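Please check the following.

. . .
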Amino acid sequence: MIDINNDRTVAAFAASLPGAAEVFRRHGISFCCGGHFSLQEAVNDVGVRVEALREELQALIDDADRDAPDDTSLLISHILGRYHETHRAELEWLIPLAQKVERVHAKHPEAPLGLAAALGRLQQDLEEHMRKEEQVLFPIMQAGAGETLRVPIARFREEHEAEGFHIREIEHITHGLSLPQGACNSWQALYAGIEKFAADVVAHIYLEKTKLFPRFA
């Protein structure tokens, strides 16, 4: 479970708790450039009561894995269908759309320059991570050989941290997914798609970290 500690950084919450990023955006709390601040420091800067923010984060924890199956095989199937397939499909159109927006709006002061490249780096790391899960980790789990997985799971947890870094990088490039006034339809669609994609990645990591991996490590 995620510990709601006032000293935990904003970036850590955003990368590990589904929905936390949107809560922070709503309150004007940056988790890319200002992500190194603790929860207490962040609320001091924006004038929000830390108790109120903790309640919102706790509600997210309570709701995070409510729809996930309890059975291990069903949970793995859920992760494969809901997240692996979805990540791949969404990145296939998000990257070309990012390239288009960068090209068309290159001279705009708020253009997300470097976004397509950042998405490409995330795609590369995420694809390698998912492929190893599909070909090695998940089959071993489904075969019931969990005692062999302590060390590999530790490595997968480290890869989750890297994916969280990519999400923060994308948040920084897009100025917190803040659209400029008069943004075209493509720009709006791009940021809406990225917001959904990033939320899915965090939810994917959360399920593995808190519900699947602890069964074998």
